[in-house]
Amino acid sequence: MAQAHPPFDLDGYVAEVGELVPPLELKDRVRVLSDGLRTRLPEDCPQALAILLSILGDELGEGEGMFNTSWYLMPVARFVEDHGLGHPEESLDAIEQITRRHSGEYSIRPYLDRHHDATMDRVRSWACSPSLNVRRLASEGIRPRLPWAWTLHRFVEDPAPVLEVLQVLRSDPSPYVRKSVANNLNDIARDHPDAVLERWAVESPTPETAWISRHALRVLVKNGDQRALALSGVTGGEHVRADRLVLSPATIRLGESVTRRAEIRNTHRRAHTVAVDYVVPHVRGNGRTLPEVFKLAAVELGLGESRVLEKRHPVVDREGVAGPRTGHGGLLARRAIVMWTWWIRCGTRHRAVRGTGDGGATGRHRPARPAPAPRSAARRRRRAPARRSRRTPRWRRRWRARSCCRRR
Q1: Distance, CA of 356 to CA of 126 (rounded, Å)
Q2: How far apart are CA 78 and CA 58, in angstroms?
């Protein structure tokens, strides 16, 4: 930077950044770096952009991750995102150059809001670019639910403009681009599953499109969508049973693992491809549970064949989101893991079968809950709720309470 712009106050920039960034998260640190560039570069935005573009370096090739070689350009991309909105043409040109060396998927999102038509015209042209990095930006930049970015509600409600761009990239030769297209379709499938199932999963003229379709169906497969399961090649749901479900041990501490074991059996007269997932209800910091689906196995079962599946699942605390636990000293109590749901997802239907945490086998039926421990008479009186008549108005109940206090 000092070579590209000699008046740049490098020592002051280093001192300012070193003072502000230690307590901040990644994106806030990038913002501090970007704001420091803004105060030390020329006030004219196109001139400042020209200086920043002169330090970008060579374009990344296939398989060169931006976080491996060009992570240092994150403040440059943030500079365009925060300070270039007043000059959309120059800023979009800069985003195209930045994405060849890093990524412009976050920088472009404010322009989709403030300069929508001009930005979408540029995105359509990027979809035909000879650069795989620019073609990926045409898909990744317009993802409705891009992680670490704010949601593009315009495309959540109507994904037609996004699908128009993705249609151009449906058979792209680059795996880097195809993965972005599949992730984009996966976002769209959350709100418009028919658009993905009908136009993409059914119409697969090339192997590249078939791979995109399978990858884009993963959220629907996790949700148990039967059309998505059938398109994924899974069959025979009504003829597959899960028996002898076992969870062990019954009590563990955070950082340890739970072992799940089940026998999957084909009761049909022909072979079937079975996909087995399991759902873990993670307990959040506020006490609510958040179910998360994990892949267990995809197996081929012949006539009358059975297979025992086993997997260890670690119970860890991830920034307030943990596996099933009680929160008392990190102990995993029996009542916290008494119900783990295993979903057998197949082409025609799925079943939920449940297992106990004490090594028992319950088949398809829910295990009986243990009887609660008896409470003392004093505890019953203390916790017994006050009985109120539904016909008595609230004002009369309050008046009676005040009268009783005065008499006492």
Answers
A1: 54
A2: 19
pLDDT in tens, the chain (408 residues): 888 899 999 999 999 999 999 999 999 999 999 999 999 999 999 999 999 999 998 888 877 766 677 888 999 999 999 999 999 999 999 999 999 999 999 999 999 999 999 999 999 999 999 999 999 999 999 999 999 898 999 999 999 999 999 999 988 999 999 999 999 999 999 888 888 876 765 666 778 888 888 888 888 888 878 778 877 778 777 788 877 888 888 787 878 888 888 888 888 888 888 888 888 877 777 777 778 888 888 888 888 888 888 888 887 765 544 444 433 333 333 223 333 444 444 433 333 333 333 333 333 333 334 444 555 555 544 554 555 445 566 666 666 665 554 444
Q: What is the DSSP letter of 356?
A: B
How far apart are alpha carbons 111 and 87 in whole angstroms? 10
Assigned token pair, 305: 């064949």
In DSSP notation, 80-127 reads: HHHH-TT-HHHHHHHHHHHHHHS--TTTTHHHHHHSHHHHHHHHHHHT
Strand ranges across the sheet with 306-314: 240-248, 257-266, 306-314
3-state secondary structure of 159: coil
Dist CA 393 CA 36 (whole Å): 63
